[in-house]
Amino acid sequence: MTSSEQQSSSSGILFGLAQIDTCVGDLAGNANKVLEQSRLASQQGAQIVVFPEMTLTGYPIEDLAFRATFRKAAWQTANDLAKRLKREGLAEIFVIVGTVGTDREHDRPRNRLVVLHDGVVWAGYDKHFLPNYGVFDEFRIFTPGERCVVLEIHGARVGVAICEDIWQDGGPVAQLAQQHIDVLLTINGSPYEEGKGHVRQELAIRRAKEVNAPVIYLNQVGGQDDLVFDGGSFVVDAAGELLEHSPQFCEDLSYWHLPLNTSDVESAVSTIPLSVVSPTLDADEEVYRACVLGLKDYMAKNHFTGVCLGLSGGIDSALVAAMAADACGGDNIWGISMPSMYSSLGSKDDAADLAKYLGAHYEIQPVEPLFNAYQQQLHLEGVAAENLQARIRGVIVMAYSNAKGLLALATGNKSELACGYSTIYGDAVGGYAPIKDLLKVRVWDLARWRNRWADEHGEQPPIPENSIRKPPSAELRPGQQDSDSLPEYELLDQVLAAYIEHAHGRSDLLADGFDPETVDTVMRLVDRAEWKRRQYPMGPKVTALAFGRDRRLPVTNAFRE
């Protein structure tokens, strides 16, 4: 137990909830954000300011944790930040941040919470439960903590936990339930996936009832590689009522007041910042904003200021371009139309309209002259000739990327990625794939939502209606449609969801009501395409099971049941 000698304030304790976007490895930049937000919170009267899991190091740090020089630098950053807070006149507040520590007995990393106060690292706590499922690999990296910690601050007993510690029964939460705490504070790096928000709140309500105290759930926000953290921090009381809910997908500094007795509730009403309960987002808006934030932060943290992509006039490139415009502005997009001898006039018009609506740069680079040059030597036919067109387009996109310093975007969706319906080194080229975790039907849903949002806000809908309505086609041969090679997307996506996200085998899929021919076709396509998926660019994970992070099959796999 760690205790503060200062007396309780007359109006309880005001918490500043600093939901910030950190960058892995940027110790100085992350520390500066902590200092800035602590200063702002202190100006509003906050006595305790809370930040996300592994604030100073960024999260997840993965194998960077094993580098002793990094752990030493992170610890020095915490010490220096404590001194800077004191020099800035912020010695009296308690700043709670996450970082990486070291298990001295085993010389291994630990996922650590530290409290900065009065110029020093005042207290610490190490994460007990280390997740080893889905996107998490902490059991391999960290050693578990052993101590349960209660902070005594201004007369309040604050129990602390880190993310997974509240997801597992027993452990520190069970111990804190016997400690008569006034509040349970958990700092988190909980990645986004669709539908997870209500699961977090339901869990927090259970824990609040278990410890008979309010729960503060402070989450990270921002994109880190292929993970997106949605924020959505919140506070629930001991009865399960939602008291505060921070917005999703943006940095935010909110406040919540912990009364220490009945009179505190009355005396504090007019003197403290009000807690805000932000509305829950529509499901389509939530997924769309997750993809945009993932792209925006991938660009910022890798020092890209613009993107390039092929504009075919189809729905996938249209949605990716709209997301890019929302992430970095239309004037930072280079849209490249690469028509072939098989491109329809409508597709060319749709691509031009899209660029105009977004305010993007638009350039036309015909494929046919380059294709003919190759054919004079190679004389390709069939699929090889079709793939040659796609690979020429890939070369053009990468040429723009190299020449202008742009991030090349791949425009494939999860349905295509699942079935291998893409050309490796062709339309699969790029550094980031914003919709790789969206099934095709969901792509249409998000495109309609984005246009509807624009209408509701008096703006030009960015996506041409014809791109949404027309049958999808790669346009690599006369009259080609996606349905020539794949089941109709409405059916395909249902089978894919069952096979990929629910791990249904052949007998399960037949029991689900799918016909044997469709089941066999889809299973064969998915299993044969693993080698392509391993080479596809990363993109934001928005579903429970995303390719790359969550689901991997052997490249050589003969099992078909």
Describe this structure in words.
With 561 residues, the protein is of the alpha/beta class. It has 19 helices and 19 strands. It has helices at residues 27-43, 68-87, 138-141, 164-167, 171-176, 196-211, 262-268, 283-301, 315-328, 345-358, 368-378, 382-404, 414-419, 440-456, 465-469, 489-501, 506-511, 516-528, 530-533, and strands at 2-3, 13-19, 48-50, 94-103, 108-117, 120-126, 150-153, 156-162, 183-188, 215-219, 221-224, 227-230, 234-236, 242-245, 252-258, 307-310, 333-337, 361-364, 407-408. Strands 1-7-8-9-10-13-14 form a seven-stranded mixed beta sheet. A six-stranded mixed beta sheet has the order 6-5-4-3-2-15. A four-stranded parallel beta sheet has the order 18-17-16-19, sandwiched between helices. Helix 6 (196-211) links the parallel strand 9 and strand 10. Helix 16 (489-501) crosses helix 18 (516-528). The longest helix is centred in the C-terminal third of the chain and has 23 residues, at 382-404. The protein is elongated, with a radius of gyration of 26 Å. The chain starts with a strand and ends in a 28-residue tail after the last helix. The relative contact order is 0.09.
